[in-house]
Amino acid sequence: MIPSSYFFILSIILFVLGIIAFFIKRDLITQFMAVEIMLNAANLAFIALAKSHHFVDAQVIVFFIITVAAAEAAIGLAIILLIFRQKKSIKSQDISSMKG
Amino acid sequence: MAIFLFFLLSIICVGSILGMIISKNQAYCALFLVLAFACLGGLFGLLGAPFMAVVQIIIYAGAIMVLFIFVIMMINLREGISREKKKWTIALSVVLALVLFIELVFAAKGAAALGSGPEGSVSPGEIGRLLFTKYLYPFEITSILIIAALVGAIVLVKKREKE
Question: Are A54 and B20 an interchain contact pair (Cβ–Cβ within 8 Å)?
């Protein structure tokens, strides 16, 4: 029997690592991957709560999160491809043309 | 046994995410992430959610990461991303992330103190029943969302016929 607090701690560690990866990495694709890590950390916390409270709805919510993440990945990668076609670069500091 | 599996999977998961942060090559980043997501699927299985474990491995480690790898292959940056970054931004982000970590630990203490319910895993049938009764409308709306995403992605990436 594993205490659910272990899972919470792991989920928090993953979320913080995702944030660190988002700020350290400088290209759009890897930053997008960091967002996926944060989504997964949230999923882990949801499922740990589903276990500790025997609350099945949390698993359904995780199902929806995964589906929305798939849609978001498709659109986000399409936008990244479009940016690469126009700017020939996917570094996030090169995309500053909207800055006043 | 379960606790040993938990520590093994969580160490592999955190280690592969650290590897992703350190690695410069985007394709390696994506492969590290596949490993991390597969380990998370194993953790979901440990938590008594076999359906979510399978969905995690098929959709995340399978579908979404393959999409990422496709895009990385299409972009194909030969020289890779150079490291021209300021040191202080890294230090600042790590310090702020640590502050957030402490905050979240305090927040999770309250959630974990709520106690634990009965043991047992949730069968896929139970999830399906909820999905088609209580969550029927969100489920149907999700299908519209996916169609919109599909059409949107095609329209965005399509090359214009005449400029």
Answer: no
